[in-house]
Amino acid sequence: MRFSIYRYDPEKDAAPRMQDYDIELDPHDRMLLDALIRLKTVDDSLAFRRSCREGVCGSDAMNINGKNGLACITNLKTLKEPVVLRPLPGQPVVRDLIVDMTQFFAQYHSIKPYVVDDEPPPERERLQSPEEREVLNGLYECILCACCSTACPSFWWNPDKFVGPAGLLNAYRFIADSRDHDLEWRLDNMQDPYRLFRCHSIMNCVDVCPKGLNPTRAIGNIKSMVVKRAV
Amino acid sequence: MVGPVHKLAVGAHYGGWDWLVQRATALVMLAYTVLFIGIVLWNGGLSYPVWKSLFANGAFRVVSFVFMAALLYHAWVGARNVLMDYAKPTALRLALMIVVVALLAAYAGWTVQLLWGDA
Question: Mean pLDDT across chain A, nearest whole number?
């Protein structure tokens, strides 16, 4: 199978280049990550992140034939040759397919990604009704692979100020949580013209999310809450 | 020494308001467009006498002014969105925003002149 892979080592190379590989695959190699691991036995200088190899950890997000996705859950049969692999767009490259996710996680942390409850702890658990729990479906499943945020032009232009689809999906996950008591701060945090309102609903995030989530809908719900509070 | 701070300055509170007003002004423009097309169709097409009598009506001039005001505010939010994405240095962004505001204010003045000035 033929691959064209982005190679760049900022410490050695003057500029990034695309390197072609042609490799015989084993019949058991089914996912793109299997092929990458096999490629690494041929060229051990090729660098990429991977961990769980089953679409749960979010480590092996990359740009596959022009679309962000997880290598471990992308079936090789679905890919057109040569398979063009690039790092996630818009992020500083550490090496080859590995990008620096510092800014992405800084945005995630900026939305207080945890339940805030200053009340004294109850004797037993903080319970939710099945209906309250149901609200979190489609929100809590995010694995923070950054496929969505790095596919978003608004995040490309303002990664330091715009929270990005992944961060905003998680912001709504805690806004929606019945156990959270910090709604006022959370909505204040979204009033800024950059942090939430750089989203113009182009829905690249929905298109690429490997978990089938819908950040645009979550963002729409935050916007509705901001409006509801103001008028 | 007192120098500038290189912290990220975020937290302006007009984001939600402007987002809402952009949508509201879009609805105003849509309503006016439908009204205008309706009037033209009702009169069997657009001709000089139709146009003349339409704008002789004081109420229609006011409605037209509301449409233009909505258009200008809508344009302001949109133009500022573009500048926020692409004009990175703060001084440049501010300068371009001032140009846009001046231009839109001029259009507002021109609209008043056209609607209520001497024909």
Answer: 95
ipTM over cut 0.85:
no
Which residue from B minimizes the CA distance to A163? B10
| Contact assignment for A158 to B84 by CB distance below 8 Å | yes
Domain count, chain A: 2
Q: Are residues A129 and A152 in the same domain?
A: yes
B24 contacts chain A (CB < 8 A):
no
State which residue of chain A sits closest to B80, comparing Cα positions: A193
**Chain B residues whose beta carbon lies within 8 Å of the beta carbon of residue A157:** 85-86
Q: Which residue of B has its CA nearest to A196?
A: B15
The CATH number of B15-116 is which of 3.40.50.720, 1.20.1300.10, 3.40.920.10, 3.60.21.10?
A: 1.20.1300.10
Cα A90 from Cα A82, distance rounded (Å): 23
Q: Which of A99, A116, A138 marks a domain boundary?
A: A99
**What does the buried/exposed string (b/e) look like for B21-37 if buried means 16 or more CB atoms within 10 Å of the residue's CB?**
bbeebeebbeebeeebe
Compute how many other C-beta atoms are within 10 angstroms of the C-beta atom of residue B68: 19
List, for residues A65-110, the tens digit of each pLDDT value. 999 999 999 999 999 999 999 999 999 999 999 999 999 999 999 9
Residues A67 and A163 in one domain: no
